[in-house]
Structures are given as C-alpha cells and as structure tokens.
Amino acid sequence: MGAAGANVKLRAEPARTAGQDEPAFASKEELREVFERLLEEVEDDPRIGPHRLVFSDLGLVLEVTGSAEGGSSLDWKFAEAPSRDHLLTLEMGSGVANRYLQGKESVAIAVARRRIRVSCMEARMALSFLPANRELIKRYREIIASDYPHLAVD
Question: 72: how many CB neighbours lie within 10 A of its CB?
C-alpha cells in the first residue's frame, strides 16, 4: 500500500450536508465566489494543486491543476461533474468544506466520521497536500472575516 501508482480509495457514506444551525453558503454562486478569491490569493503556491473538491450538497466540482501557461502555478475550473481522474479528490458537503478551511474540521477525523470522502491515485499525494492547508486556512479565514462573516464558524 502506498506504492507509486497504487490506487487508494477511502470509501465512506455520502458526504453530509451542512446542519441547520451551522453557517452555510447562500448559493452555488457564493461558494464559487469565495473559492475563486481564495485560489487567486494562493495561485503562486505550488503545494496547492492538483486536486479536486466535490461539494456533494451543491452538485458542484472544483478542479485545481498546475497551470499550462507560465503566469501562475494554478488553473482551476468549476463544473457539475468531474472531467477526468485527479490524483486527489476530496468529496464533502459545503458546510464541511467551510469548517475545514477555517481550521475547525480535521481532515483525518472527518474521514473517520465519514464527512469527507478521499480518493487518490497515489497515497503520497494526499500527504503532500496537507502542508498547504495552513496557507489555505489562513487566507480563507481572512476572506470570511472581511467579506463573508455569515460563514464564520465559532
């Protein structure tokens, strides 16, 4: 297990959606707006990609890849269905994503509790993504605090 090229899948129940008492995105459009701002702020960080986030409750997929052009390190796009296999896919409800990116949801615990589904083609890909979390969380918190306070998690 964990050998290069091995296909590792951690299966779980379908990712749960946000509870009624937890902060939630007002719409798909608001989620897209927040995540586009986040990715614009971290696009030069090569640790961020490639990965896919599937927001199961909104029927929305965010695919992040390395840039084909020279300007930045990342390219991203939103879709309603995945376009191809990614090395790392995280599937979760948008409420879980909101908590995770504020540092209030541990990926390991969320996987164990079946709030996040993880699939990856190489086990080391999942581990290499974790160091980028600090920068993502820091930038996401700043965005939420300044322009989306209704999404703040206590």
Answer: 15
Domain limits for position 93 = 23-143
Q: For residues 55 and 109, what is the distance between their CA atoms, to the nearest angstrom?
A: 18
Per-residue pLDDT tens listing for the chain (154 residues): 344 444 444 443 344 444 446 788 999 999 999 999 999 999 888 778 788 999 999 999 999 887 666 566 888 999 888 777 767 899 999 999 999 999 999 888 999 999 999 888 777 766 667 667 788 899 999 999 999 999 999 8
Considering only CA atoms, which of 5, 8, 14, 113 is closest in space to residue 54?
14
- Predicted model pTM: 0.80
- Looking up residue 95, the CATH number of its domain turns out to be 3.30.1050.10
Q: How many domains does the chain have?
A: 1
Sheet of 51-55, strands arranged across: 8-10, 116-120, 88-92, 51-55, 60-66, 74-79
Does residue 97 form part of some domain? yes
